[in-house]
Amino acid sequence: MPIQPAVIRHLGQAEYEPTFAAMRAFTDARQEDTPDELWIVEHPPVYTLGLGADRGHLLAGATSIPTVQTDRGGEVTFHGPGQVVIYLMMDLRRNKKGGKLYARQFVNKIEEAIIHVLAAYNLAGERIEGAPGIYIANGPKKGAKIAALGLKVRGNGCTYHGVSLNVGMDLAPFTWINPCGYAGLETIDMRSMGVDVPLADVQQALANELVNQLQVAEPELT
To answer: 144-162, pLDDT tens digit by residue?
Structure first.
């Protein structure tokens, strides 16, 4: 069966909880021939907790922002205006041009997409072993986190949740948590690194790069 083109949906600004419910509903209903989808969204301020998250990582100040328990992996993270969020509704068991994907390869390719997008804006990103996400690779902010991953892979190989990249945000809410469970981890955005770029430009760049890395055929825009 030929690969159906991925559908890229621009959801605009949307509350987290209805979007979370929609991801699960889409995944529940999808069939073998359902095209993969990438959802681009910008959320109002919200903390989300992974399945194994420790609420002790919510610090003083965090009570001013809603907190939602999710079914993704990982710890606590923050979503807010000025951040690219892309949710990946994919079937990893499909034969794509490069063959089937496994969860570890899936994460690696998502991280590679972020690194490529940052490089296009002359920012160097890198992985840190054992800490999913992308971090600033050099300079005075080396080690600061600029992108986070949180994924759910069901037993049938279908995925949801996804990736966030900080573009131009109020970074204060990150200081009210231990981001991804790491006390004292600095979180940064592209604007603080000297790159002031429209959010929509980075949304589209990351979506295109994810399609390229994940080999989900050419996208259809909706």
So the answer is: 999 999 999 998 899 999 9
Rounded CA separation 89/2 (Å): 18
How far is 210 from 38, CA to CA, in rounded Å? 9
The token duo for 98 is 């490069």
What are the structure tokens assigned to 89, written together? 């509704």
Q: How would you list the strands of the sheet with 125-128, edge to edge?
A: 125-128, 131-136, 145-153, 159-166, 83-89, 37-42, 7-13, 220-221
| Diameter of the chain measured on Cα atoms | 53
The H-assigned helical ranges of 71-218 are 103-120, 199-214
For the segment 20-64, what is each residue's pLDDT rounded down to a tens digit? 999 999 999 999 889 999 999 999 999 999 998 899 999 988 999
For the annotated catalytic residues, the residue numbers are: 180
CA nearest 106: which of 219, 217, 213?
A: 213
